[in-house]
Write a structure and sequence with these properties.
4-stranded antiparallel sheet; DNA primase, PRIM domain; 285 residues; alpha+beta; 6 helices; 6-stranded mixed sheet
């Protein structure tokens, strides 16, 4: 069985991708069609990596950085210098791109923190607040508040979103900087909070040293690292979505998995998130 949708043929539209919620390939294609305008703002001119689950979550998933030969020509490719030579990546700028990718089992979209034409100049910093399984959720909220306050002291505007899985992401638009500078800036804030509140936060990547703490992950600010895009689905059983919310709403009621494909229309995108695409800030030394 096939179905034409937004100019793309959806094969096996009835295939269940999220067994717990009975969400099908066609449901996912429809979601990405409806949210495409907002999601593409997160992806356009950025190298994008994908998480695919063609047979449904019950049959596993995999991460894909580079396009295969089966990708249509209308999906733009760019060549990027990597440690081991050159790699081909994709950028996405049209609704059809998203629909094609959903048809081949793409669930998640992850993007670089820099964009064309200058991939060597990051235009975002991300703090990923990742709690250990036994960490109080209130610690995640505290970390977000502390980082927000630190950024305000540096006169930096920031936004916040759910990760869709375990934690929260803080996004800071920047300009005229380097990977080394942006990562060092993020590390400085993370280290400061971990030193000030050692029982709550850590910047140690080793999982056996994170017990009861929130890992403030600044490592995503490295060249080639990615962050899941706002409005992307996640490979969570409930078909959760990484979704923005307002700083004024930050409380323990905010949960990383609270927005799903079933209820996302009940949530409003905050004005400050829309501002993210127009603000550009220089980091101070």
């Amino acid at each position: 069985m096939m179905k034409e949708f937004a100019g793309v043929t959806i094969t096996h539209p009835e295939r269940v991708i999220f067994p717990k919620t009975n969400i099908t390939k066609l449901d996912i294609a429809q979601y990405y069609s409806q949210i495409s305008e907002k999601l593409l703002l997160e992806l356009i001119e950025r190298p994008v990596s994908l998480v695919r689950s063609p047979g449904g979550l019950q049959n596993g998933k995999f991460y894909q950085k580079h396009p295969s030969e089966a990708f249509p020509k209308y999906i733009e490719r760019i060549t990027i210098t990597e440690r081991q030579g050159e790699g081909v990546y994709i950028t996405l700028d049209a609704q059809n791109d998203l629909i094609f990718l959903s048809n081949i089992g793409v669930i998640e979209f992850h993007a670089w923190l820099s964009s064309l034409p200058d991939l060597e100049a990051p235009d975002r910093i991300v703090f990923d607040l990742d709690p250990a399984p036994d960490a109080p959720w209130s610690n995640v909220i505290d970390a977000a508040k502390y980082i927000h306050d630190e950024l305000q002291e540096h006169k930096l505007f920031s936004c916040i979103k759910t990760s869709g899985i375990k934690g929260l992401h803080i996004v800071v638009p920047i300009k005229n900087t380097t990977w080394e500078h942006s990562k060092a800036f993020a590390r400085g804030i993370a280290d400061h909070l971990a030193e000030k509140y050692p029982t709550k936060f850590t910047t140690t990547i080793a999982k056996d040293k994170r017990e009861g703490k929130v890992f403030i992950d600044y490592l995503r600010n490295s060249r080639g690292a990615t962050n899941v895009a706002a409005f992307s689905l996640r490979t969570h059983a409930e078909a959760t979505i990484s979704f923005p919310f307002a700083w004024k709403d930050l409380s323990t009621d905010i949960r990383p998995y609270m927005v799903t494909m079933k209820n996302y229309e009940d949530f409003t995108i905050p004005e400050e998130w829309k501002k993210l695409y127009t603000v550009s800030q220089k980091l101070m030394d």
